[in-house]
Amino acid sequence: MSANVPAFLLHAFDVDELDRDEGIVVALDRDGTIVWHNSTWKRFALENGGLDVPSRFGLGARYLDGISGPLRAFYASVFESVIATQEPFEQDYECSSPDEFRLHHLRILPIDDHGLLIEHSTRALHPHGEGEAVSSDEAYRDDQGMLLQCSNCRRVHRVGDGWHWIRDWVKVPPPSTSHGLCAACAGHYFATTRRARRVARTKKATP
């Protein structure tokens, strides 16, 4: 294994131990390019139907290129802050499937000034409730005919009536579905982004 592992990662971590970790572990260089991942990463992708994951998050890909919408800006600011401050970042986030509620924990660790180690571990896992059953998507479409699904919690916006969990639409979103953030997720991620950028600017300005 060590033959294909960057020297800066070998110097900082027991890579064989990371490879056996039950959580997903990915290493990035300073430019955000994926330079290593553990075995769990590939297994998780295959078990969850992520056939495009090897191309979106494979070796040589830029990690942020696999993230769309407002979450991309959020993680870009967090990566910048962790590298600038050399302080870890941690948070819980939801990554549910149609059948299971999954609460994951994210930890982003600096590898000196060479890059980042990203860990995703499971905090909670249990079957979902059935969620809402809908016979028509008309109430969820705006005046442009679009549906809006939260990129983070996967709920769908019902026009004039908040955000709703619809199990079938997590697995296969209806046609003309766009992605953004619901009010709760937006409040959290935008506030965190602002704090991360403030910290990074302060660190850079410190002699």
Rg value: 19 Å
Supply the CATH superfamily name of the largest domain. PAS domain
Q: What kind of sheet is the major sheet?
A: 5 strands, antiparallel
> What number of domains?
2
- According to CATH, what is the topology of the largest domain? Beta-Lactamase
Q: What global shape is seen?
A: globular
Category from helices, strands and their pairing: alpha+beta
- Sketch the topology as an H/E string, one letter per element: HHEEHHHEEEEEEHEH
Strand elements, count: 9
- What is the annotated CATH architecture of the largest domain? 2-Layer Sandwich
- The CA-CA distance between the termini, in Å, is 40 Å
Total helical segments: 7
Helix content range = 25-40%
Low-confidence regions: none
The CATH first-level class of the largest domain comes to: Alpha Beta
**What is the strand arrangement across the widest sheet?**
2-1-5-4-3
Mean pLDDT: 82
Proportion of residues in β-strands: 25-35%
